[in-house]
Structure formats: structure tokens, C-alpha cells
Design brief:
19% strand, 85 residues, two-stranded antiparallel sheet, globular, 5 strands, alpha+beta, 3-stranded antiparallel sheet
Length: 85
């Protein structure tokens, strides 16, 4: 359960790692927030879709060169997220 960016290790929380893994498993495909909620959080009643957005923002902050203009973890408007190969 380790992630590197170039040669540097990146510290991810367990949920961030699980979210990244869910995106990697579907690399190139759009994954809806609901699918991510079910897979990563077990779609618990207290978890809201903003939870996914917040964790995606953290992944971008840690993994993208420019989190404001992501190249790898992309938002697909009104659909979800996609991990670009």
C-alpha cells in the first residue's frame, strides 16, 4: 500500500489509497460518485457525495504537478471521475 510520484514516496490516508485503487481498476473509464461511495465507503448513510470530491481534491494535491489543472485524475462533468492513463 505505497504510492510514489517519480522517486518520492507519497503519504496517502487509507481512504485516499482505496479511492486511487478504485480509479486504477477502471483506468480510462468514467466512475460515478455513487460507484466510488459504494466501493470505498460502503455507501454509509453519513457519507455524502462531497466526501468523494474532497478526497479527489486531496489526491490531486498530492499526485498532480498542478492540482488546479489535473492531467491524470479528471472530472467528467455530471458523470464522475476518470483516471487518465
Amino acid at each position: 500500500r505505497s504510492v510514489t510520484k517519480g522517486t518520492d514516496g507519497v503519504s496517502l490516508t487509507p481512504k485516499e489509497f482505496d479511492l486511487l485503487l478504485a480509479l486504477i481498476r477502471r483506468r480510462g473509464a468514467v466512475v460515478s460518485r455513487l460507484e466510488l461511495l459504494k466501493e470505498v465507503w460502503g455507501h454509509q448513510a453519513e457519507v455524502m457525495t462531497r466526501t468523494v470530491d474532497i478526497h479527489i481534491a486531496e489526491l490531486r494535491r498530492k499526485l498532480e504537478d498542478d492540482p488546479a489543472t489535473p492531467r491524470y485524475i479528471l472530472t467528467v462533468w455530471k458523470a464522475g471521475y476518470r483516471l487518465e492513463a
